[in-house]
Amino acid sequence: MRIEDTDKERNTAEALRVLLEGMRWLGLEWDEGPEKGGAYGPYFQSERGVLYKEYLEKLRAGGAGV
To answer: Which pTM was predicted?
Structure first.
């Protein structure tokens, strides 16, 4: 599970708690995520900028006009 947390005004610990509780109430369970860890983190969108920059550079190096 990845958490969209880029809205700084609404990104609070309480909002995250409510989101996770709601997902569990719906019967959803995830293999990995912010509380479980795993190989595909980071799990917060705001922490993924480094990954996106890395892939952007690969695209540019490969000749993509980005």
So the answer is: 0.73
Q: Are 23 and 43 in contact (CB under 8 A)?
A: no
Cβ atoms of 13 and 20 closer than 8 Å: no
Alpha carbon of 54 to those of 9, 17, 49, 51, 61: distances in Å? Answer: 28, 31, 9, 5, 11
Total residue length of the chain: 66
2-58 residue pLDDT tens: 898 888 888 999 999 999 999 999 999 999 998 899 999 999 999 999 999 999 999
What are the C-alpha distances in Å from 32 to residues 5, 15, 42, 55, 58?
17, 19, 10, 22, 27
